Automatic annotation (TrEMBL):
InterPro entries: AB_hydrolase_fold, Lipase_secreted. GO terms for biological process: lipid catabolic process. This is AB hydrolase-1 domain-containing protein. It comes from Talaromyces proteolyticus. SUPFAM superfamilies: alpha/beta-Hydrolases.
Amino acid sequence: MQLTIWPNYLLVITVLISSSTGFQTSAGRPNDLNFTAAQAQAASCDQACQTNLQEGIDGDVATFGSVPFDSSFYATAPNFTNSQPGALLKLQQLNETTLDIPPGTSFFLMQYTSVGLNGSIVPATAFVALPFSADIASNQSSPIRLVAFAHGTIGYVPSCAPSSSYNGYDYFTWEILSYPGYGVVATDYAGLGNNYTTHKYGNPVLNGNDVYYSVVAAREAFSGTFTNQWAAIGHSQGAGAVWGLSENPLVASNASGKYLGGVAVGPSARLYDILTLANPNSGYWPMVKNIFDGLPFLPQPNLLTPTALNRTQLISELQLCFDAISVLNEDLPAWGLVNSTPAITAQNGNAYTAFQNMFGAATGKKVYQNLLVVNSVDDQTIVVNATLKAWNASCSAGNSVHLSLYTGGLSHTQSFPASSPEWLQWLDNQFTSGGTANATGCSISTATPFVSPIGIVNNG
Ligand SMILES: *[C@@H]1O[C@H](CO)[C@@H](O)[C@H](O)[C@H]1NC(C)=O
Ligand SMILES: *[C@@H]1O[C@H](CO)[C@@H](O)[C@H](O)[C@H]1NC(C)=O
Ligand SMILES: *[C@@H]1O[C@H](CO)[C@@H](O)[C@H](O)[C@H]1NC(C)=O
Ligand SMILES: *[C@@H]1O[C@H](CO)[C@@H](O)[C@H](O)[C@H]1NC(C)=O
Ligand SMILES: *[C@@H]1O[C@H](CO)[C@@H](O)[C@H](O)[C@H]1NC(C)=O
Ligand SMILES: *[C@@H]1O[C@H](CO)[C@@H](O)[C@H](O)[C@H]1NC(C)=O
Ligand SMILES: *[C@@H]1O[C@H](CO)[C@@H](O)[C@H](O)[C@H]1NC(C)=O
Ligand SMILES: *[C@@H]1O[C@H](CO)[C@@H](O)[C@H](O)[C@H]1NC(C)=O
Ligand SMILES: *[C@@H]1O[C@H](CO)[C@@H](O)[C@H](O)[C@H]1NC(C)=O
Ligand SMILES: *[C@@H]1O[C@H](CO)[C@@H](O)[C@H](O)[C@H]1NC(C)=O
Ligand SMILES: *[C@@H]1O[C@H](CO)[C@@H](O)[C@H](O)[C@H]1NC(C)=O
């Protein structure tokens, strides 16, 4: 088909026009707010904390770049009420010269209906990145191969939407899919971008729903453009979402097309194992607390000291995203984590287990299609023993999961691009075979560096 002709779209595609008023360098984003010393002190954030906070905010600003946050796009569509899961609500194309994405790629913002807590419908947003033309190997005149991408941790407040970043929050992630010609639909997850519901951070079941319905909506937005077959890949939080997706009975139906399987790199699948095995000195604790804030019916863990708890108000006041959140408690003993007593350990263990049973992945559920799991043995965020437990639990339940371990010092973030030769081949095999490749049961392989990069510094 001719990719330059778009007459059949149900939506009027509006093109965001760059103008002298449209793109200021830093204003125009809700997370570009400057804090005052008094505001920080009111949240128990003293001088050392303020220095870290400013550095973290600078990091967040760099994550999003100079693209303004389009509040009217992220606002809930008037026709969200009574819509069906997977319904397309809004679609608009951005002028990609204002972005930093692979040249020739076109970039769309999409709002659609997903399913949140207790089966309620929720609005979610995503971006769709289309290649200039389809992969030659899959025949240029063929439809575009569709892959859903699920991003890693970026924060939990609405301003932290990957689709609002100058590069779709690429950190050597989704763009790798554009070069071989995949069409990428990348959900923000509900609650990031749109504020109708709170983001359900690190929730494989609900984040997996958001991935699934992004595919249904993208098919409506670009009718006839994509292959019926589709696959998914995610990193970290998103790898947990892909694992959750692979256990979602929806993928066994044909409503989204034929799901070929997924790739999970550094998966946040089993919360209990990840948190009890991980290094406790980490900036993730405010994020972990937020997982439970959104699920008040579960047993709640006791995680943050009073000082660290006071500081969490800055996350919503200043719309902090991951760079700022991760350094917010760096100056505190044990990064603001409470001193563990046996009672607290038991309380937190109960909370993690309850979460894992209800919303986790790799807890013994059926996996409906093949799953390739990748983990660096040196990953300090998702430690390899947690992923080994997840693999073992899923395989013990009779599923077909291949685990590929990477040696050589790769960090949590580095393992995604470093393993791309393997997962690109795996995806191609799935598309070529119609999903039957690699349906060979459970196995583990180990990849070692051909030549170790001399510059690998593992910062987690
Ligand atoms: C919502 O409204 C847009 C037009 O603004 C329309 O294109 C879309 O199909 C509608 N979606 C639903 C589910 O009604
Ligand atoms: C896209 O942006 C470029 C550079 O600012 C500009 O020259 C071009 O006219 C814009 N295209 C549209 C359709 O607005
Ligand atoms: C924050 O401060 C910087 C300079 O330090 C300034 O450029 C920017 O406009 C300020 N942002 C807001 C929202 O006032
Ligand atoms: C949600 O976002 C809309 C605009 O998108 C804004 O008008 C509204 O104030 C926001 N609500 C909250 C509670 O922040
Ligand atoms: C949602 O489900 C949970 C767990 O089943 C339940 O405890 C809670 O009351 C439900 N919330 C609503 C608003 O229905
Ligand atoms: C590409 O697909 C078209 C239409 O299905 C077919 O006619 C053509 O032979 C294919 N070309 C190659 C090189 O496979
Ligand atoms: C999905 O489609 C395939 C054929 O493409 C068919 O064999 C299968 O039964 C369908 N599954 C469902 C649940 O409709
Ligand atoms: C937390 O904030 C409250 C109210 O601002 C304050 O009274 C309290 O002393 C703070 N706690 C700590 C440990 O800083
Ligand atoms: C990981 O598990 C292996 C085998 O059970 C064990 O020998 C090793 O000490 C564990 N490593 C860590 C860091 O817990
Ligand atoms: C693997 O799973 C089986 C069955 O659940 C369990 O008995 C075994 O202890 C697990 N092994 C490890 C290393 O976790
Ligand atoms: C299975 O996946 C691996 C990558 O993990 C790939 O190297 C291998 O070729 C695949 N096997 C088949 C039969 O497709």
